[in-house]
Amino acid sequence: MKDIIKSEELLKLLGALSNPYRLKIIAILHQEKQYVSQLARELGISRPLLYLHLQKLEDAKLINGYHEISDSGKAMKYYELNSFSINLTADFIAQIASEITIKNRKE
Asked: Is 13 domain-assigned?
């Protein structure tokens, strides 16, 4: 990931990492690229639910999805992990806190 990160990118990143399924997806993809059906079976979840998790991770630029054609001619969607490192410190959060906009919720 880039060394310079904006507050909204940090919030998206932390949101993507805040789910146990997404952490498991990262752990699996850390070993090797996987196609969607493989990931769904390994996690024991439906493909539609898996796609929601994959989209969050892809939006945060933690993973990358692409198509490959199998030997039988079938298009298969693969995902691989992007290299990243997060050095999250109180100083860093203090530096970007001024960029964060908190929306008032209507109650």
From this structure: yes
